[in-house]
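# nightly structure sweep
# worker-07 picked up a monomer target from the shared queue
# config: single-sequence mode, recycle default, output format = structure tokens
# input follows
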Amino acid sequence: MGEWRRAETGYLKASRIHCELCGQLIPGRYWVEVVEGSERTFCSPEHEEKYVSYWLPRYGTAGAASR
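# output follows
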């Protein structure tokens, strides 16, 4: 289960939020999935679904750290 959030933008604070699946910089709103106290950010709910159904079974959580 996730939710949409809006990235903070400001003159002195640049937004540095990236999708955990594709690596795309997310300038506006982004999708957040909260799992076991940690958050994962995605550019869309479809990328969250692809991350859970494809990336995790294939590479596991250790693969995400090596990207």
